[in-house]
Amino acid sequence: MDTDKMKQVAYETVIANEDELFEASDKTPLAMGAAMVLRHMPELLAKVTKTTAQLALEAAHDLEVDESKDGDDAYSQWHKLFASRLKKDSDMGELLAALNFTSRYVEQLGEVAAHKAIADESSENFGAKFGRN
């Protein structure tokens, strides 16, 4: 099995087990999974950019515009055609899953950091440090 295929399988495994990773008490696998997702993101962005451009061109090519209608109507027709194709694009779905995972991970890191900051500060210092007296 080549390296790219192994990375793809590992990424898909992380995304498929997202809920279990976030709910586990040991956060080490979650951190490793997040690193894997983040390493995969540039490839996903490149694929999505390429397929999005291709889908936009295909929608423009397949669009039959009535010459008597204005440009806004033509754009609206193109957008409907393009959006329906984009929704079916598996690369876009994969990117959205990765972005969701990353967002969820960053949110959890923020919560952990906030709880740690609260626990580390005495009640006097906490109010002063965060602008509450």
3D structure, described in words:
The mean pLDDT is 84. The chain has 133 residues and is mainly alpha-helical. Helix 1 (3-16) crosses helix 3 (28-62). The chain is elongated and about 70 Å long. It has 6 helices and no strands. The termini are far apart.
Gist of the model:
Helices cover 83% and strands 0% of the residues.
Q: Layout of SSEs?
A:
Elements: H1 3-16, H2 18-23, H3 28-62, H4 71-87, H5 90-120, H6 123-129
Helix pairs in contact: 1-3, 3-4, 3-5
Structural class: mainly alpha
Please tally the β strands and state the result: 0
Q: How can the largest sheet be summarized? A: none
User: How many distinct helices?
Assistant: 6
Order of helices and strands: HHHHHH
Tell me, rounded to a whole number, the average pLDDT.
84
Q: Which features does this protein show?
A:
mainly alpha, 133 residues, elongated, 83% helix
